[in-house]
Amino acid sequence: MTEHPSTHAILARSAISTAFAIARPITNDFESLWAKALVSYKEQTGRSLYQDQVAQFPDDPSVDNIVSILETQSKGLEAFREKGRNIRNVLKPVVNLVTLFNDTGAEAAAAASVPGGKAIFVAFGALLAAAKGVTEVYDALEEISEKLQDALDRIKWHLDTNSKLSSRMKEIYTQMLVEVLHVFVFLIKYPKSLAKRTQNIIWRRSKDFGNSLLGEKEVQEALQRLDKLTNRESLMKIAEIHNKVYDIGTKVDNIETKIVVMQMDEQSKKWLSPPDVYQHHYTIYKEQHKGTGAWLFKPNSKFSQWKQGKSSFLWIYGKPGSGKSVLCV
């Protein structure tokens, strides 16, 4: 009997093949990752998810746009608002996510008629409509949104900083994206699966609705894996920071050594350089007493006659400091 790969395996294989190419903050990388995951999901299930409802959402959404559209589809948001709950706290992370996974440029998704990130809005809207203002559903969605947004923010921060990701960090971020996609695929199909399991409107309005959403094994396992990956990412980041600090320290030590060598070379060159003869003579000239040796240069003196003679050698001797150098100037 042939074994068919699980949904998680298909998503992982599709996401990893694309996400390993992520090395700079280009939205198309996210688009391709998201599109391939959704294409894989459709190939497995044979279903196009909420295609007619997805068309109502704009390509460049804002929180206000999404809230307005969902209000026209159901009264679920009004029920939450009556209880003083701000649904924007739930939708804001989701809108930010769809901005990243904007499917307007994902050719693969368009070719397969598979909705992109906007399908997430439909899933959230269906859950809110079914809940009819149940606080526990809001809390469950808010908790899921925060967990997923934290993971996406960590990835987006690294990509926005143009930092070069190591192969291990790429692998961790790829797996984090896979878990995010896994949870969203579950949210998209959850309202239909819930409707099949029960038709009891009282149960659907109870707090068990929210508890069942968080208690789903598929969601729990994905969020647990996401937490583990987040911890791995933190430890890996600390290790990489340590390595970078060590490399910087080594480079600083090398620079310091080079500076010391350069200073020693400069001092050696200065010490070995020839003396300034002009400065030496000028120093002696300044120390000469006025009038010293003037008799040697008087016209018609014996010294002048001697200089003009055939033999003009002169032997000068005396004790140190007697003025021999002055006569030679």
UniProtKB/TrEMBL annotation:
Coiled coil: none annotated. The keyword Repeat applies. Residues 291-328 form the Nephrocystin 3-like N-terminal domain. The keyword Transport does not apply. Pfam families: Goodbye, NPHP3_N. Residues 34-156 form the Fungal STAND N-terminal Goodbye domain. InterPro entries: Goodbye_dom, NPHP3-like_N. Keywords: Repeat. This is Unplaced genomic scaffold GYMLUscaffold_28, whole genome shotgun sequence. The lineage of its organism: Eukaryota, Fungi, Dikarya, Basidiomycota, Agaricomycotina.
